[in-house]
Amino acid sequence: MNATAAPDKRRWEAPYAEAELDAVVRVPGSKSMTARALILSALAAGPSTIERPLIARDTLLMVEGLRAIGVGVDTSDDDAWTVTPGAFKGGTSVDCGLAGTVMRFLPPVAALADGPVAFDGDPHARKRPNDGVIKALRGLGVGIEDGGRLALPFTVEATGTVRGGALDVDASKTSQLVSALLMAAPRFTEGIDLHHTGDRPVPSRPYLDMVVQMLRQAGAEVDDSEPNRWRVAPGELQGRTWTIEPDLQNAAPFLIAAAAAGGTVTVEGWPTETTQAGDAVRDLLTELGARVEWSRGGLTAVGSGEPIPGELDLADAAELTPALAALFGVSQGPFTIRGVAHIRGHETDRVSALVTELRKIGADVDEYEDGFRVNSGGRGPGGTWATYADHRMAHAGAVAGLVVPGLVLDDVACTSKTWPEFAEVWEQAVRGKE
Ligand SMILES: O=C(O)C1=C[C@@H](OP(=O)(O)O)[C@@H](O)[C@H](O)C1
Ligand SMILES: C=C(OP(=O)(O)O)C(=O)O
């Protein structure tokens, strides 16, 4: 099997929870930290090691993309990848798959290559918003051939240097635009003085704390003291050892499962301090009435299967929307999620996909531009839960399937984007100690 190719579909009956859950789960490394570690290592002056990297389609596509432009990445040891930077080469192409991190983080790096670098991806990747990256690079003096599409496919007409300097962007569709520009900025001749000038705020803000923290760890000078403005000085990044935390977005559905089916679920090794957006699930589950505590070697959620109705603004933790929506879709309600207009540009239009699938299992749902309200949940009939090639739609189907008998996901292989073993780990967690 080619781990960077779009996976073949695999139907999967989500396991039904016959009893309360009792599980301890270990999750792989953070996608976002692995992606940043790879990019910062590639831009550094010396070699780096990435300990406990996420090994999944998105991060392997990033590895392949970096190799394509001349970076040495040794992935032979699953627990420690090594990155050996080199001069970036053009005359090559990059497959972004469906990875937002690849389609946004790599073009500003490729702009430093000595010739053209072509980018394309899965069919749906061409529909994901990428006008921000294309306009930004043009604003920094880089030529982009995009056939007027302002989206994939496009070619970065790299000439070896990027001027950098002051730049206004609208990052309201994706925070990844800001992360992408900040990471490459130490290698721009003038660094960057970046302003977000959009009408709506930048979503998913913890990811910006993550990028600023990791840039500083690599030796960059970053000033983020003013809202919506980031300044990065030109300078050398250092190679170092990165240790990747467990992925809290992938962990969250397991804790949410305890709230849906009742019982106790622990995620091992949950960091006590982190910039990961998924950490928000601790407070959210508490707000919904679950008990959340540090025990059994990690973070434990004890749920009743009857979450307390409420209204959540998930602008900063929007990837939690699918799994929480599934919890709400099978609970009494009402529940409202707002602030997530930008997830319409994720792996699929997640607002529309969730509303469609929740209605199929009998939930009464109103759709808004920036979210939805579950007036009352449903618990059947079972049938097919469509995943839209979206790993987090598969996680959501798994949560719903805990209490909707006979729910079959049309495809669980899409979870390979960030966790190829998701289905097996989920099955084991639901079966518990039987
Ligand atoms: O920077 C990152 O690593 C990410 C930022 C977020 O993107 P958006 O700002 O587009 O939501 C998040 O949803 C994505 O999964 C990972
Ligand atoms: C939005 C997501 O991914 P991407 O990095 O492709 O934007 C996600 O993983 O939920």
TrEMBL record:
The active site is at residue 319. CDD domains: EPSP_synthase. Its main location: cytoplasm. 3-phosphoshikimate binds at residues 31-32, 36, 174-176, 204, 319, 346. Residues 18-426 form the Enolpyruvate transferase domain. It is found in: Cytoplasm. This is 3-phosphoshikimate 1-carboxyvinyltransferase. It comes from Glycomyces artemisiae. The lineage of its organism: Bacteria, Bacillati, Actinomycetota, Actinomycetes, Glycomycetales.
